[in-house]
Structure formats: C-alpha cells, structure tokens
DNA sequence: CGATTCTTCAGAAACGTTTACGAAAGCCCA
DNA sequence: TGGGCTTTCGTAAACGTTTCTGAAGAATCG
C-alpha cells in the first residue's frame, strides 16, 4: 500500500477526507485536518505528481525553452543559463517546478514545442530567441497555454513579452560616439533569423538619423553570434577601403574576437577603432582597453520573466494583476576606454 | 474527445491497439502501425505525460538539485549553470526531460529532496554540493532512486559520483610553487560544510608533505566562497606577521577579491605574493597579471554526469554498462603570471 | 478435417489523485 | 417530535495512458 491510501489506512479514514484535508478544503473537521497533516509529515507523504497532474489537468511546472547547440561549439555564452538562475529563485517561491526545454538546433522549434504542448508537460512556457515571424506564438495561443516571450517578434504582440532595450542601447551608443566626433559608424548584426537583429538594426538606423548621420550599407555587418563572428567582423573591417571609425556590437562574445583580430593587425581598440560592446560579461571589465558596454542583471531578468509569466496564468490571478507584460529591459552604459578616441576636431 | 481516444476514434480501432502501435509492441499489424503513426503525426498527437507517468510509474525526467541562494547575493558563479548546458544536450539525445530542483538555502536539502522523491517527480537525480556526511544519499538509496553525486562524501561510496580532481590540482599547484622556491604556502578553504573543503585541505597537505614542506596551521584560511571571501583572505594575509609567499585558492571568484585587496595594499600578485587560482573563468585570462589557474569544461562535466546517471538507471541497461561511475574530473593547468616569482635562491 | 498455434485486436483493469455527490449525524427551532 | 440546516465524511467516478487477458480468425500441422 502506498501513497494516500496508506495514509488513509494509517489514520483509519477515507482517502477522500485525507485529500480534502491536505488541500485545505473547508468541509473537514479541524481536528481531523491536524491529524492528517501530522501523519503526512510523519510518514513523509507528498502527493504523487503524476496522479495529481492527471486529475487536476495541470502539472505545477513551467518550461523554459532554449536552443541547445548540442554540438561542441563551446561558444555558448551563459545568457540563458544566467536567466535560469533568476527563474528558479522566483518560481521556487510559488512552488512551481522548472523544466528546461532544450530544442536541438537540428529541429524546428515549432515542432519541438508542439510535442511539449501535446504531452501537457508544463502549464506555461517561456520561449526565447524569438524569430521575426514566430509560429510558436500561434501554437501557444491556439492551445491556450500561458506564455511569455523573451524577445519581440515582428507580428502583433497580443501576448506577454520582455525584450532587451535595444533602442536604448543603440541610442546611447550612437549618442556617445557622435559626441566624440564619429560620423562613420558601423554596426554588427547576427546573421540568423532571430528578430533581435532586425530590431537592433532599426534602432541603430533610428539613432543615426536622429543625429543626422547616414548609414553606409556596407557598414551593416552580418556575422555569427560568437567570438569567431567577432573575428570575421575584424576581417570585414580591415578589408574596407573606407573604414568606419567606430563600430557597435550586438553580442557580447563578438568583442573578444574583434579585439583579437585588431591586435593581430597591430591596431588598438579605442585608438584606431572605437568599439562599443553589448552586454557586459565577466570578461569585458578585464579586456584591455576596458570595453565600453551595457550592464544588466540576468538574474533580475529571470525574475521579471517569472513574474510576467505568472501574470498570464489564471491560477495566479489572485496574486498577480492579470495581463500581458510588455517590457523593454533597461541596460546601463558602462564606460570603458574602448571608444575613448576623439575624431576630427 | 482528446488524446488517444480521439486518435482511436479517428482510426476506428481501439485505444489499446493505438497505444501498442505507438510503443512499438510486437502484436500489431505493420499496416495498422503505419496508419497509426501517420494519423498521430497528422493530428500532432503525443501521449499525455501525466497519464503515461502514472501508468508506467516513471516520469521520463531527471532532476538536477542545486542550491539556490534566492536572495540577492549576486556572487553566484555560473558553475552549475554551465553544467546544465552539458546536461541538457546529453539528456536530449535520450529524450529525457530535465527539471531543475533549486533548494532554497533556508531549507534542509534532505527535506527538500525527500519531498521531491515522495512526489515521484523524477526518475533519477543528480545531487551537487555534497556534504561530508550527506543524508540525501541514504534517502535516495532507501527509495531506490538512481542518482549520481557531483562531489564526494566522507562516507562509503557505494554509489555513482563525479568530483573535480582536487588531488591533482593541489599537487600541480604545490609542485609548481615548490619548484619556484616557495616554502610557506597557504591555502584557502570555503567555510561551509560542503565536503569539497575537507577534500582539498587533505589533498593540499598531502602535496605539501610530498615536497617535504610543512603547513602552518594559520596558513589554512577559511573564507566565504565568493569574491568578498577573496577580499577577506587578503585581509587575513596582510594581518599576518609571518606572511606566506604563496597561496592556493579553491574557488574561482576568490581570486577577484584577493587581487582587489592586494592592489589596495599596493601589492602585486606574482611579485609580492604568488597566487594560484582554481577554476579558470572567463575573467581569469583577463586579470592582470594573468591568473594561473586550472581549466575544465563545464559542458563536458555535464555530459559526464548525464552518462554516469544513465548508467545507474535500469531502463538504460542496454545502452550503458550498468555500474557506479567513480571519476575524478581532470583539470588542466593554465599558466599565468600570478605566481611567476622566484623565491630565495 | 480437427486440433493446435499464431497473429491481431478489443476490452478492461490499473496507476494515484481530486472532487462531485450523497448520506449520516448533530443541531436548531417551530 | 419532526423537518430542515449544517457539519463532516465516505463512495465512486474521472483524468489518459499502458498492459494484461482473452477471443476471433487465419494459418499450420498431424
């Protein structure tokens, strides 16, 4: 005999009463409830999750979908992993389990998520790396699964999302460079279909226009989102006849590779080329010269995502104002010397 | 009508046959099986996980238990998070779900795990930050839950574990320092009950004895496992009348704080004090002078843990040689300049 | 051709929980 | 006293799946 039956037998009452006692239902005598709770603590009883999920129709778990480059491309930065740190802490407070949903790069994220949804593995889900047109959103809406997106899409946004404040970053970066006299400013964009690239490009062009600067099309450089991508950016820059005097990067690891390529060419960031990085990583403060970049707390982002997600879940309607969070996550400029050069006069 | 019933109705066969077809049971006509598989793909059917778990008695998920400092102590390094990256990739290959089990620092890890076990949330579990005497191991053995420990314990080891090769690290560090002429070598130990501290201390003393060096008890410095802990180590060193000429750290973030404290005192690592760090982080290669430390792949460690865990699970007896993995994870010396000083003559 | 085996499938039970329903007992009040 | 509440609890059904049991029909064999 196991589970609730054992507990009921031990107390010589019915399993229905045990269940009601444990779940705080009103129609149970207070003394009985206390006896049940005591016995449960004594025997170390906790309800079997599968049985409970099946009956209730909800699993008490939320999923975090990330893309997993299961190959040995070790460039994987720890962005998502840092977010997980915040997520677990916030979800722990509400006794929700977190299941990591790693979608192999070989599989279509939509198909992967569809299987998760069909299995009813989680009650709600966080999707990341949103694409410009992301079918996962239609899927989740149709299945009525609460969700929040980490990243905007190109389509309508009748759903919860949090995204980095690319507009703010682009404006701060361009304003700073423009003030230093730069007129030829390049931008690095990841060469994938993630919406981030489109958003940042638009934001950059906006910022440039705001400062009455024109963007040379050849100065919009597409590269892989990795250290190696930064190296190729260096190649591209060195091959240009009219080289920009500054560049803004959109992926933290790019700075490492770009530094390396510049050093190989005998050039110094902040003297021969102004470099503005993206997210401040553990390494950026140690790069020499120190990289000008933007700071944010991955942990806090995780917490924000958790709260935004809970706000979409009917079960938490009493604890969170229901509705769709739309939030641009602020990033704070960290001044380094990698762009400390004055142009012209 | 939902789930397998819908599929069965659509095909006009019984749900039993549908289930057997999907699960590759032999007693089903091949043409029927094909029809079922086609229909399942068409309708996007995947078996409800709760129903399946309940019936099968296994959940198709493994847990990774970490301690979550849900407070804002942001010092949390990304060690465990890096491991998760490897775990997800390896588990994905076997279609196992990963659920993160964050135990609040306020709760007893044993009680937390007991609840997880009682809920039957996962089929197997990875525990980390093992203590010298870790009751979780008795719990898991008694419940017959397959598990692997990240970290040794002080007790018998009739279970699977993987731990960092602290012995190798201590020996390499001491050998290197001894060759440079150091005789007064200190060691930093975390001031918690995690077994790691005991193991490293023993390994350090072994290594010292091997080089016929004596360990001054005051040179065994206990400090918090954080950057701030490194700072307090600096304080302790500066306050000593007979200061050691070298120190070996056992936690990566300690190096940052120690550097800071030394700099404040006008001292330079590698000139005034030889510093050997522990795990090479993204930052250590950028510290100035470059930190001598030890390299390992968190991702590979995650993969190793996954494989060691699968080897303990009866369900994978055909794919992995069953048995208990006992493995010291090698760490490779990365030479920096933080200990490049010659003592005496 | 009858007996036996094999193939294929339908039906039903079981996993552990929650909850709708109803019943028993106590109470109140006319 | 008896009818109607209220309180408390037991019973049974339901969630979606897998698997056991057995049965019908086809195939094989003596």
Automatic annotation (TrEMBL), chains A, B:
Pfam families (UniProt xref): LacI, Peripla_BP_3
Molecular-function annotations in GO: DNA-binding transcription factor activity; transcription cis-regulatory region binding
SMART domains, alphabetized: HTH_LACI (SM00354)
InterPro entries, per the entry: HTH_LacI, LacI/GalR-like_sensor, Lambda_DNA-bd_dom_sf, Peripla_BP_I
Keyword tRNA processing: no
Keywords recorded for this protein, A-Z: DNA-binding, Transcription, Transcription regulation
All residue ranges annotated as the HTH lacI-type domain in the record: 2-56
Name of the protein: LacI family transcriptional regulator
Organism: Devosia geojensis
């Amino acid at each position: 005999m196991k589970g609730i039956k054992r507990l009921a037998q031990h107390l010589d009452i019915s399993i229905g009463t045990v269940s009601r006692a444990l779940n705080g239902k009103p129609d149970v005598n207070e003394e009985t409830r206390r006896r049940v709770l005591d016995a449960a603590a004594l025997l170390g009883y906790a309800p079997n999750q599968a049985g409970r999920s099946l009956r209730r129709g909800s699993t008490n778990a939320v999923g975090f979908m990330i893309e997993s480059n299961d190959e040995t491309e070790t460039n994987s930065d720890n962005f998502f992993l840092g977010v997980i740190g915040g997520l677990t802490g916030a979800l722990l407070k509400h006794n929700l389990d977190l299941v990591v949903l790693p979608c192999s790069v070989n599989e279509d994220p939509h198909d992967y998520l569809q299987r998760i949804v069909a299995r009813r593995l989680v009650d709600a889900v966080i999707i990341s790396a949103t694409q410009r047109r992301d079918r996962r959103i239609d899927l989740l809406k149709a299945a009525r699964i609460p969700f929040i997106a980490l990243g905007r899409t190109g389509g309508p946004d009748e759903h919860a999302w949090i995204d980095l404040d690319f507009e703010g970053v682009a404006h701060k970066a361009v304003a700073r460079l423009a003030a230093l006299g730069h007129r030829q400013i390049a931008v690095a964009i990841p060469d994938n279909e993630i919406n981030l690239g489109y958003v940042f490009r638009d934001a950059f062009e906006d910022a440039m226009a705001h400062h009455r600067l024109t963007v040379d099309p050849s100065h919009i450089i597409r590269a892989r989102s990795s250290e190696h991508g930064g190296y190729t950016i260096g190649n591209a820059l060195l091959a240009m006849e009219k080289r920009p005097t500054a560049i803004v990067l959109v992926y933290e690891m790019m700075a490492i590779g770009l530094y390396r390529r510049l050093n190989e060419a005998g050039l110094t960031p902040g003297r021969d080329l102004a470099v503005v990085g993206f997210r401040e990583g553990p390494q950026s403060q140690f790069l020499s010269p120190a990289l000008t970049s933007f700071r944010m707390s991955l942990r806090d982002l995780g917490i924000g995502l958790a709260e935004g997600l809970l706000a979409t879940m009917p079960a938490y309607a009493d604890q969170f104002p229901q509705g769709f969070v739309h939030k641009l996550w602020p990033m704070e400029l960290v001044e380094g010397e990698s762009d400390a050069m004055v142009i012209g006069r």
